[in-house]
């Protein structure tokens, strides 16, 4: 296995991680921004008010994007297993 193959495999793995985690991060950041704006306007500084909506948003995004995430991870794993003869020498 050459250095180029290792770099390509690492690049694909990082891209997969970023694509799989992106929906949850985007939902969490959006809800966090909205809650922070509401807290700044109303001057309510309750710590739990920031965490609970984020957790709900992440769980909701998992429900919505779960099939897409599973398909993406399955494609990556299938690619790994079909090309396993390239990795073993």
- Using only CA atoms, what is the Rg? 19 Å
- Spatial shape: elongated
Please, how many helices? 3
Overall number of strands: 0
Q: Which regions are unreliable across 5 or more consecutive residues at pLDDT < 50?
A: none
Structural summary, described in words:
- By secondary structure, the chain is mostly helical.
- The chain is 89% helix and 0% strand.
- It has helices at 3-42, 48-82, 84-87.
- α1 (3-42) packs antiparallel against α2 (48-82).
- It starts with a helix and ends with a helix.
- The mean pLDDT is 90.
Secondary structure elements and pairings:
Blueprint: H1 3-42, H2 48-82, H3 84-87
Helix pairs in contact: 1-2
Offer a few descriptive terms.
single chain, elongated
Please give a quick description of this structure.
This protein has 89 residues and is mainly α. Helix content is 89%, strand content 0%. The radius of gyration is 19 Å and the shape is elongated.
